[in-house]
């Protein structure tokens, strides 16, 4: 995976705009606590099974230990309660999919994207 480090409000605004690009599936945000074993496990599972290209789905990584205030902004903008680890799929400027902890599953993300974009196999 080609993670883009999410570190400021300008990037958050940019990713919301990016989620509205017609040829993209959206933008994925992974909120990660580097000290949490569950978060590390979820990250490892994502990276092992990921098969989207960045042209179709950009992936942002938010280090919660260093940028917790940015997570609060995400919580307020998308009305999604903060969790860690947490995955958010942003499509057309809104959060359409969210999972936390052991519920973060690449196949479920792929199936959801297929249903929302008409690219199911």
Brief write-up:
This protein has a single domain, classed as Glutaredoxin (3-Layer(aba) Sandwich), CATH 3.40.30.10.
Task: Describe what you observe in this structure.
The chain is α/β, with parallel strands linked by helices. It has one domain (about 5-115): Glutaredoxin. Helix content is about 40%, strand content about 25%. It is built from four helices and five strands; from the N terminus they run βαβαβαββα. The protein has helices at about 10-20, 35-50, 70-80, 105-115, and strands at about 5, 25-30, 55-65, 85-90, 95-100. It has a five-stranded mixed β-sheet with strand order 1-3-2-4-5, sandwiched between helices. Strand 4 and strand 5 (about 95-100) form a beta hairpin. It is globular.
Rg over alpha carbons: 13 Å
Low-confidence stretches: none
- β-strand amount: 15-25%
Described by strand count, sense and barrel closure, the largest sheet is: 5 strands, mixed
- DSSP summary, beta strand count: 5
Which features characterize this protein?
single chain, 121 residues, alpha/beta, Glutaredoxin, 5-stranded mixed beta sheet, 4 helices, 38% helix, 25% strand, globular
Layout of secondary structure:
Elements: E1 3-5, H1 9-18, E2 26-32, H2 37-49, E3 57-63, H3 68-78, E4 86-91, E5 94-100, H4 106-117
Parallel strand pairs: 1-3, 2-3
Antiparallel strand pairs: 2-4, 4-5
């Amino acid at each position: 995976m080609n993670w883009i480090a999410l570190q400021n409000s300008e990037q958050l605004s940019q990713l919301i705009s990016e989620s509205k690009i017609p040829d993209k599936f959206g933008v994925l945000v992974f909120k990660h606590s580097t000290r949490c074993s569950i978060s590390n496990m979820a990250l490892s599972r994502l990276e092992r099974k990921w098969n989207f290209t960045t042209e179709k789905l950009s992936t942002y990584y938010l280090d919660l230990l260093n940028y917790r205030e940015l997570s609060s902004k995400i919580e307020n903008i998308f009305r999604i309660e903060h969790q860690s680890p947490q995955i958010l799929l942003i499509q057309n400027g809104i959060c359409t999919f969210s999972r936390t902890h052991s519920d973060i599953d690449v196949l479920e993300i792929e199936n959801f994207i297929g249903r929302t974009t008409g690219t199911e196999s």
